[in-house]
Write a structure and sequence with these properties.
The chain has about 280 residues and is an alpha/beta fold. The chain is about 25% helix and about 25% strand. Strands 1, 2, 3, 6, 7, 8, 9, 10 and 11 form a nine-stranded mixed β-sheet that branches. α6 links the parallel β9 and β10. GO terms for molecular function: methyltransferase activity.
């Protein structure tokens, strides 16, 4: 029976990158999701729209001279066709991670290379695998975490959810997300780098991602991401250190060049402790 391969290393890493010359989108969920998208073709102007939703705040990019304010009307946008999922999020029927997964579907293609910088209990890893896996077996998911229990939980979830051939497309690393460039093959066109920051659900809440290492991992994500790719970040602010990490992610996104990147944030304004996708 084929199985997921483990690659032990010094620490965990989180990264993702977007295709050249495409608009960049970032998702930061702190109960806030951020989406950073890298432009495929650089427009003269990029419009940014902010939508206030329940528990999160999302910013999206649109083509020049949009004919409609509906997200679904924006061609080649990671937010195309997300009307229902965002409406569900606004009314508390959808989670920030569900919004992020729906955006990924508009970015990831079969056979793509993607990175789960914080595999946690494996649900993001599984969602990525289902998006890249096909009969060509060219797709790859590079998933990492510093905690052994996180890698074990991810391995177990994959074993219960997919067949052995699909499991072989996932590589699990006990490594820091700051070192993602050490595991992603040189020249690989990484389509997505996803972060789900904070602590491991159901785990030790004292073990958390940190602003300093998260910033280094985001910088690494920029370098490995292919044009047209996406950096997806979910940030949680309700724990010690969460607010600082949120501000670090927000500052990073705000400083990205407007000619190459489009950055979005979804945040609940009257619920300061809600996650931000």
């Amino acid at each position: 029976m084929a199985s997921v391969r483990f690659f032990p290393n010094s620490c965990m890493l989180f990264s993702q990158k977007i295709t050249k010359s495409q608009t960049n989108f970032k998702f930061f969920v702190s109960a806030s999701p951020f989406l950073l998208s890298k432009l495929h073709s650089i427009p003269r102007k990029a419009s940014i729209f902010t939508h206030s939703l329940a528990e999160k705040d999302v910013v999206t990019s649109a083509p020049e001279n949009p004919s409609s304010n509906s997200i679904s009307k924006y061609n080649n946008s990671p937010f195309q066709g997300l009307d229902d999922i965002i409406t569900g999020y606004i009314f508390g029927k959808k989670k920030a991670t569900e919004v992020a997964h729906s955006v990924w579907k508009n970015v990831i293609r079969k056979g793509d290379v993607v990175v789960d910088a914080t595999c946690g209990n494996g649900y993001d890893t599984l969602a990525m695998l289902r998006l890249v896996a096909d009969e060509t077996r060219r797709g790859r998911v590079y998933a990492m975490d510093l905690q052994k229990v996180a890698l074990e939980n991810t391995y177990s979830l994959l074993g219960q959810s997919v067949n052995s051939d699909e499991r072989e497309l996932v590589e699990l690393y006990a490594i820091c997300h700051t070192k993602m460039e050490e595991i992603v093959p040189s020249g690989a066109a990484v389509r997505l780098v996803a972060f789900n920051l904070g602590y491991l659900p159901g785990g030790d809440k004292k073990i958390i991602t940190r602003s300093e290492t998260t910033l280094h991992a985001l910088e690494a994500s920029k370098r490995v991401l292919a044009p047209g790719g996406l950096i997806s970040i979910v940030v949680y602010v309700g724990h010690a250190g969460g607010r600082d990490e949120f501000e670090t992610v927000q500052a990073f996104a705000s400083e990205l060049p407007v000619d190459n990147w489009v950055c979005c944030k979804l945040q609940m304004l009257n619920r300061p402790l809600a996650p931000v996708p």
